[in-house]
Amino acid sequence: MQYPKFKRAVVHSFFILTVLLSGKTLATNQTTSIYKNEKAIVFTTMDNKTTDAFEGYIEVPENRTKLNSRIIKVKYVRFPATGNKKGSPIVYLSGGPGGSGINTAKYPNFRFPLFMALRERGDVIALDQRGTGASNTTPECVSSQLMPLTEKLTENDVEQRYRAAAKECAAFWQEQGVDLLGYTTLQSALDIEDLRRHLQSKKVTLWGISYGSHLAFATMKELAGKIDKVVIASAEGLNQTVKLPSETDAYFARLQQAINSQEHAAKAYPDIVKLMHAVHDKLEKSPINVSIPQKDGASIDMLFQKMHLQIIASSMIADPQRGVKHLLMLYKTLEQGSNSVLIEFLKRGYFNNQPISFKAMPFAMDVASGVTKERLALIKQQAKNSLLGLALNFPMPQLNKAVKGLDLGDSFREKPINDVPTLLLTGTLDGRTYIHSQKEATAGLSNLTQIKVINGGHNIFMVSPKITEIIKSFLNDEAITTTSVTIDLPDFAPKK
């Protein structure tokens, strides 16, 4: 069983030929520069919005710590600046790890308008980090390890099978010529330095979310003096790859307060913590035998257990506007003895009978960032009685130190300390990176402006036009006079 983890410029041909032959930076009559390894394109989103852009790449060592490391390409799309005051290039750092910056700009009804709005300040770079999107040359590994769907499993069973799969995959990637030790946050941070040089800029501005903030923190440490500004949302600190279970429990307390603000929702869910514990206890004593219909008309039998529900819950609490209402209904119907909502969930493919598989970049990045010994001990202690246990960051910490030499060490996990102007956006109902955790992650930043997005979740860049204006003001060195933005809560009450 595979368990999920829960991250046109019109240029004359003579001009293009000149650039290709010279490899130098030249300016068009619109004062747009074109750099080595770039070509003009028409960038098209998945909902058919278009804009002029440049597609390019840099060449970097796969593993800078190894002599004669093979060279890989890190690709990007550059949206040239449109404003009169061109600042430093703004490099978008996608979340995950494993997200594609280029695809983030393409997704329908997503962040494309923000990419375009920030061009008023400078070139905006949609970066595909090493091992992601257009920059990915690493094959997916499919192990021989299976997680039986119809057997009662312990957490130790799951961990041992995943660690065995990780060992297989590390050997597989080595046979394929992939240097797994090159796929770390530190190596990605140094890619940004190479990108800065490629763009011939004294400094770069970093713009990221979730794991993208994790990469931003590492880059701030590695590129001291070369970072202009930083805009991050839903911050994940350098020692926060694995979240504290107590912070997740505190999130559910805040969620209950939000539910209590709605009369019908409060009546339906007077105590969600009690509800969740009751359903978990029920599943612990008596797992449910279910048959999951498949698109081809077949079905898959499954023994649905407590850990399965914890994994589903972990995947659905990021944003209150998305999955939370449906998750609450799942728990309520399971408490009532009905499996109808559960079957609808499982039909989405949360669990299957396929072997355990990994993609190299997200696998390696998380294992490399790791967790300190002291934090891991605290996590394991808290997990015993917490609502979601160790499910939130699965398969970490289960795979902690699973690959020899990959862990970056505790010095990497030390928080950045600097005075780089930084804007932090924090959702009060973020179910993945939490209020207190984000405060801790940014404690060493002496020039920090924090905006709380009241009722906001994990993905908060586009939940209000006010956020775009705040980001633009910050990048333009304008005073920010607000400390919060409030958005509407969804209706948590179950359908009548």
- Tally of contiguous helical segments: 16
Oligomer: single chain
Let me know the number of strands.
Answer: 16
What is the CA–CA distance across the termini? 36 Å
CATH superfamily of the domain at 13-138 and 183-240 and 411-486: Alpha/Beta hydrolase fold, catalytic domain
Give the rounded overall mean pLDDT: 93
- Biggest sheet strand order reads 3-4-5-7-6-9-10-14-15-16
**Annotated CATH architecture of the domain at 13-138 and 183-240 and 411-486:** 3-Layer(aba) Sandwich
**CATH structural class of the domain at 13-138 and 183-240 and 411-486:** Alpha Beta
Low-pLDDT segments, ≥5 res: 6-31
**Global geometry:** globular
Q: Please compute the radius of gyration using only Cα atoms.
A: 23 Å
Note the beta-strand portion: 15-25%
* Structural class computed from helices and strand pairing: alpha/beta
CATH topology of the domain at 13-138 and 183-240 and 411-486: Rossmann fold
Walk me through the structure.
By secondary structure, this protein is α/β, with parallel strands linked by helices. It has a domain at about 15-140 and about 185-240 and about 410-485: Alpha/Beta hydrolase fold, catalytic domain (Rossmann fold, 3-Layer(aba) Sandwich). It is about 35% helix and about 15% strand. The chain is built from 16 helices and 16 strands. It has helices at about 15-20, 100-105, 110-115, 155-175, 185-200, 210-220, 245-260, 265-270, 270-285, 305-315, 325-335, 340-345, 360-370, 375-385, 435-440, 465-475; strands at about 25, 35, 40-45, 50-60, 70-80, 90-95, 125, 140, 205-210, 225-235, 290-295, 300-305, 355-360, 420-425, 450-455, 485. The strands form 4 sheets. It has a 10-stranded mixed sheet, with helices on both faces. A two-stranded antiparallel sheet has the order 1-2. Strands 8-13 form a two-stranded antiparallel ribbon. β1 and β2 form a beta hairpin. α9 packs antiparallel against α10 (about 305-315) and α9 crosses α11 (about 325-335). About 45% of the residues are buried. Residues about 5-30 have low confidence and may be disordered.
